[in-house]
Amino acid sequence: MRLLLLPVVAATSLIVGCSTPSSSPSSPAATAPAPAQQVPSYVAAAKGCAVVVGGSVGNTFSDPKVAGFWHEVNKQISDLLYDSLVLDKYKVVKLTVSVAQSAENERLVLEALARNRCNRVIQISHTVDEDKSGRYFQFNVLMVHLEPKGTRPPGATGTNVVTVGDFKREYRYPRTPASFDSFHTGTFAETVYAELKKSGSLEPLR
Length: 206
Known about the structure:
There is one protein chain. The protein has one domain. About 30% of the residues lie in helices and about 25% in strands. It has six helices and five strands. A five-stranded mixed beta sheet has the order 2-1-3-4-5, with helices on both faces. The chain starts with 11 loop residues before the first helix and ends in a 7-residue tail after the last helix. The model is unreliable at about 1-35 and about 155-160 (pLDDT under 50).
């Protein structure tokens, strides 16, 4: 299972969006250590936009039909959530991870953040598993924002950014025919949207 961990420290160039120009061998700057990269202003802004991530985010499956099924369910939920956010004039962009891209989820999200100058992520991921309570499927809703590290030392690549959680909910359902029959993506998306809004986590997206 690949949940979004947002390893921002390992992907400085994607967030910062710049690189240090090369120096000639004769230049004194060629031997000087590279300074820590500055955090872009949009990262630390109190207001901003969010990348809404869905599709093939969560468990991976060897059976293409099963993978396609859960991709479509997840996509429907994230699309409906995105539509509700847009309708209420929140600043969001959509990212749908395809089945073929499932292993690249983290990179795609980081690129989307940098490309759209967003500082928040709302992600829908799915888990299909079995434990002592039985077979189940679960949707995990996560919202995080980027934040400068402050006085803490930068990472190995000079990054001074971390992620901070704003919202996290897990919605578990028994994996039975009756549960599948009663589950509706539209109703679920409405529930997620209502709880996100009630939490206050969406206010910075105005």
